[in-house]
Amino acid sequence: MTSDYGDCSGNYTRYYFNATKNRCLRFNYSGCGGNGNNFEDIAKCRYLCGGNYNPDRDPCLHLPSNIWCPTWPVYAEMWYFDSKTEKCIPFLYHQCALDRNVFPTCEDCKKACQRHMHQLQMCPEEHSNSTLG
């Protein structure tokens, strides 16, 4: 994936992974839109895309566990990354089923999994009420 300036009129320094040169490079970002090859700092770009990247340890590539826990019937709205749709999806999380692909907000999910998004997702504004119905 190449760098993508985006759709707005801002001008922000960001970093993208250039697969041909096998390194992270700087580019200008408009502030909205674009794709997932867009990192706020070079360290995060190197961490997520550099030579140490291991897809087996990438939390975004694993579905959240579906473990029933009868001793802890507390649910919370959380987010997970769906690699098929390339989007962060809200779901009701059972607190005893700890998993790597579970994020407290859409923004947290997006930041962790943006390298897998061909189009950056627009997250809903945070609300105290559930958006799951």
TrEMBL record:
It comes from the Eukaryota. Residues 1-49, 60-113 form the BPTI/Kunitz inhibitor domain. Keywords: Disulfide bond, Protease inhibitor, Serine protease inhibitor. It holds the Pfam family Kunitz_BPTI. GO terms for molecular function: serine-type endopeptidase inhibitor activity. The keyword Nucleotide-binding does not apply. This is Tissue factor pathway inhibitor.
